[in-house]
Write a structure and sequence with these properties.
- The protein has 203 residues and is an alpha+beta fold.
- The chain has seven helices and nine strands, in the order αβαβαβββααααββββ.
- It has one domain.
- A hairpin with a 5-residue loop joins strand 3 and strand 4.
Length: 203
């Protein structure tokens, strides 16, 4: 991954595109009253943000990928899935209407970022060890650059837990007016909305 300065320059010309569709998010049931809060990612960090930095709403392409990403499911060496004993979880279906998504599930922009698919899904270096030492991982450096520019609403990235899946990592603070993330729940018991506040640039 390139340095932050080089990433910022590259991201000025990032090939962003709209994303309209459904993604999935797993949360602990105890957070059901704030299901779209990204405070957990601020406190503990994630693949694309260091702790105590900026919010990321981590989502996935399917319920299975969402469960694998939070280690509620594990894949064994022979490809079988096993559950892990956990406190209750909620798997949410989210409707996304986003205008500026950078798709890194394809390699067309890797050279500009100085990265590879292998680096995007790698567990080395460990973000836990790096962050404990006051360091950031390559993907966290990329996430910080994307958040800083304000030009990118979300990253579509390969899942590190499911090689056939992808994650949609939304930057709530970077959303434009009319960009939204909402919960699909016809019962009306779970209602939450993340709505962009940044004015759209004039053409």
């Amino acid at each position: 991954m390139h340095s932050t300065d080089r990433l910022l320059r590259a991201l000025e010309n990032a090939p962003v595109a709209p994303f309209s569709g459904f993604v999935y998010r797993t949360i602990a049931e105890r957070w059901r009253d704030t299901p779209l809060s990204a405070i957990g990612s601020i406190r503990t960090g994630g693949r694309y943000n260091v702790p105590n930095s900026f919010p990321v709403l981590y989502c996935a392409d399917s319920q299975m990928t969402a469960l694998l990403e939070v280690q509620a499911l594990f894949a064994t060496a022979d490809g079988r899935l096993h559950g892990a004993p956990r406190n209750p979880d909620l798997v949410l279906t989210l409707r996304c209407e986003l205008a500026r998504v950078l798709d890194l599930t394809v390699d067309t922009f890797y050279r500009e970022l100085g990265t590879t698919r292998e680096e995007l899904v790698s567990f080395t270096p460990s973000r836990f060890i790096a962050n404990a030492r006051g360091q950031e991982t390559p993907t966290q450096r990329l996430g910080a650059a994307c958040s800083f520019t304000g030009h990118i609403s979300a990253l579509k990235v390969p899942s590190a837990a499911n090689e056939t899946g992808f994650c949609l990592d939304v930057f709530p603070d970077s959303l434009l007016v009319n960009e939204t993330v909402s919960i699909l729940d016809d019962s009306g018991r779970l209602e939450a909305l993340v709505q962009g506040m940044i004015p759209r640039p004039k053409k």
